[in-house]
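Quick sanity check, Elongation factor Ts:
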Amino acid sequence: MAKITAQQVKDLRDQTSVGMMDAKKALVASDGDISKAIDYLREKGIAKAEKKSSNVAANGLAQIAIHDNVAAIVEVNSETDFVATNDTFKDLANKIADTIALNNPADLDAALKLKTDKGTIDDAIVETTQVMSEKVSLRRFQVVEKSDKDVFGSYLHNGGQIGALVILEGADQEVAKNVAMHVAAVNPEFVSRDDIPKQRLDHEREVLKKEALNEGKPEKIVEKMVDGRLRKFLSEISLADQEFVMDSDQTVSQYVSSKGGSLKSFVRFEVGEGIEKKEQNFEDEVNSQING
């Protein structure tokens, strides 16, 4: 049996909000595998769904640039939010987004070599790092293209902490922007349920079935319950099936369709997502200050 650490228990509690003993029991039952422990808790009805970790540390800005039928969304990072609000940093993010949209580089290394009035994007980043006296970096980007009959919608939330870029077929820019605002707020995973991998659906169905059986429901009605809960699950992760934030009486797909359009794609960048915070034990921090 794997040794269960206090950090594993904490991580599982952070993701599921269950009690300490439930978290430890789930980890023991799953031999320390956090993903399996989450499934165990859900099957037992203790945790209904995995919470997305908000344990992020990076500061910076997301920025979007659109040039004709090509658009780019980028994330530029800084060490502090103070630097991220500086005009010099904002100008850099704008310059990077524009240059990438106009040149469509193959990857991050190619993007850093693109020419600017500062030499290259990398040169501009180095200069901003020197001016700001803290590390500045281009973390990621994505370039998307549309046809003449498509329309872009873009939205930057909270000054660029979240960026959303949407493509609709038909409709107009106002409709597309409204969908981009929805994407920024609700954070869907897929455009439609057709885009969800079969393995993901099969796994979710199995978890929901075990959950229903563990609730003591008769097996003859379990399948209907699972179908209903699976539809709810799909409506939570599929953009097309989500309740539209500006009108909960219709789904996003219904809203776009009512305006003569259809959903094609979306990209959503949230600054710092997926970057773990550097945590320090309080006792260690005090000792380091005493002994420093």
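Posting the structure with no commentary besides this: Residues 1-49 form a domain with the Helicase, Ruva Protein; domain 3 fold (CATH 1.10.8.10).
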